[in-house]
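<given_protein>
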Amino acid sequence: MKLTVLGDPKVIILTGASSGIGEATARYLARQGHFLYIGARRLERLLKLQTELRAEGCKVVAMDLDVTRLEGLQRIVAKALDDHGRVDVLINNAGIMPLSPLSALKVAEWDQMLDVNVRGVLYGIAAVLPVMQQQEQGHIINIASVGAHRVWPSSAVYCASKFAVRAISDGLRQETETIRVTLITPGVIESELADHITDESARLAMQEFRRVALPPEAVAQAIAYAIAQPDSVDLNEIIVRPTASPH
């Protein structure tokens, strides 16, 4: 893949970069010439991705990151600041989707979803917002889901977490005049998210739901499009769905 260097490369922090939308976004943005700081819990995957992209001439730094711990996000922000003196973009992408009916009472999975999908986004904002406020510029991109707009059986807690991300994004947008805020809302995407569903009925339903799905590169392109807009233009929400899918 040929590296395309942009005229104005950004310093970008990306969470959940070890697979799916995160991995595709890391590849896409790094190949545009941006400076990427990628984090996830599966460090071995990140290091492999870092090696591959650096061999192409991309500028990528991989770091172990658990978004349920604020100090981890503060550490990756500090690294970007040490290297470049600024952070231009935060992409809150890390998320999990262990679907189940509420009657299954998978309380531990509910807690984990809220920790990663909601607290992880809030911690990312907490780590980067003071920096962007001081800079008087920046861009926070939160990855939600069509589950931020409607609810299906077995998805109540997951959709609640994504409704929360949508609310957080719009609240942050209204509170600042200098920081851009974008909510990216994917429909059905090819990813590993459904592989971790432990409830049998939810897993079978998701197999049918995902029969028509977009490649994660489609979402990566939407993210890049939002980033590429002038500082005075804030794309507040982009919904990306497969043409053939009703969901």
